Amino acid sequence: MHHKRIFGTIFLISAFAFVGLHAQQTRPEGQYPAPRYPDIKKRSTPEELLNIARAVVKKPSNRDQLRPGYDIKKGERVLIAVDSDFERPVLDAIVTAIQEAGGSVDVLLTQTSARRGLEGWKEVAPALAARGSGPAAPSQRALAMKLASEFKYDLLIQGSGGPAPNTAHRWEYIPWSTVAKFVTGAADFPVEVQEAIDQKVWATLLKAKRVRVTDPEGTDITWTLKPEYFELLKTEWPGYGDDVVMKGHISLTPLFTAPGLDAKGVIAGTLNHAGTFPAMKLFLEDGKVVRVEGGGRTGELWKEYLTKFANVHVPSFPGPGSGWLIEVAFATNPKVARPPQSQVNYDTWERLRSGVIHFGLGLTKAPDAATRPEYDKYLKEHNVPSSHFHVHTYFNTVEVETTDGKTVKLADKGHLTVLDDPEVRKVAAKYGDPDQLLREEWIPGIPGINAPGDYNRDYAPAPEVYLQKELEQHYGKP
What we know:
alpha+beta; 17 strands; 2 domains
C-alpha cells in the first residue's frame, strides 16, 4: 500500500455497561424464526472487500453511523483514525477505494487498553462523564480532529457510534472493525432502501400515542409518546433537522433525555454492550428502575448504582434517582450480524440488526447548549457519573397505538415488519431480489425460544457458554 501512516499510542478506558433475572418459561419452540448465520467466507476475498469499499466510497456523505458514505471527490485529502486492532483487510480495501476515486489518504492508528470489567465501575464512571460514545474517546478523537484541522484534511473518517462532532471539515463513521462486519451486506446496503425503511418507521412514530415492547426473555414494558417529544428530539439532535433522527438506530423515546416518561414494566435480557450476564430483570415505574432481579454480579452492581445515587436529582430529570429509561434504540438494517469474533468478548455491532432493541438506562443527557452547563455543574459538585447502561433484546414485538386509534406492529417476534411493506420492496427491487436484500442476515439462537433446550436451564444461568458453542458451531473456534 502507498499510503502514509501516523502512529500514535493512546490508552483509552473502554466503555462498559451494566445490565440484563431468570425469564419466565418462554413460549413454545417454533413460534420464533429459526437461528441463521451468514456465510462470511463467501465475500471475504480481497476482490469482494474492495467492491464493498468502492460502494461505501461512492455513497453520499451524511454523518450517519450505520450507513456512512464517503463521497470522495478527486483531489480530496482524507485522514482515517482507527484503533490498532482494526482489521487490516478492511482498512486496506477502504484506502484503495479512496485512492481509486482520486483521494489521498493518511492513517492514524491508536492503541486501546483492554476492556474493563464491571467490577471497575466506580473508577470508570467519572471518566465516562468526560468521554464520548463509541471506541473513539476524547483523547483519540481530539487528536484526530486536531490533525485534520491543522493539516487541512477534507474528510476525517473515525468512530463507530455516538453523536457526530461539530467540525469544519467533513466527518464520517467507520464502524466495520472486522471483515465479518464488513461483508454481511450492511456496509454496502443501498442508501435508498435504508432511507425507505427508516422513513416508514419514523412516519409511524410521528403518529404514536402509546408503545408496548414485549420479548420472550421477559421484557414487557409500555410508555406514552407525546408530539412534543419529537420536537425535543429535533432540538437535542439539531444536525438531523426535520429528517429522521438517528437513521438505522431510531429511538422509540426521546433520546438521552427524560422528560417525565411514564414507562412501566420490565426490561429483561442477558447481554449488553460490554458482555453477557446471567438473566436479569429491571422493573420500572414512572420511567425509572425501582427493582432488580438476577443478573449475577451485574445485578449486584445495578443495585449498588441505584442505591448510591438514589437521592441525587440531576437537572433536566423529573425526580431523584439514577436508573432512568433514556434510550430505546430500534435498529432497522437487516444485514447486520453477530460477528464470530464476539465469542465471550461481546461486540456491540449486532445491536444494529433490524428489529433488535437496546435499552439504555442511566443519567446521560444530550449535549444541548441550554441545559448542559447546569447539568455538568451538578455532576461535578455531587460526583455523579454521566453514563448509561444497556440491555439488548432480540425477539421484540413492538406495538404502537396511534393517535387515529390504530395499532401498528413495528416488529413481530424480532422481525421488522416494514421490510414487508410493498413500497419498501419496490425500492429494494431496483437493486436485486427484494426477498434476499430485505432478509435478516442473522438470527440468534436462544434455547427455549427458537432453539432446542430450556431457557432457564440451558441459557439463563451462563449465556456466554451457550453463545460460544453456538458461534463455534457456525464458524469454528476463534
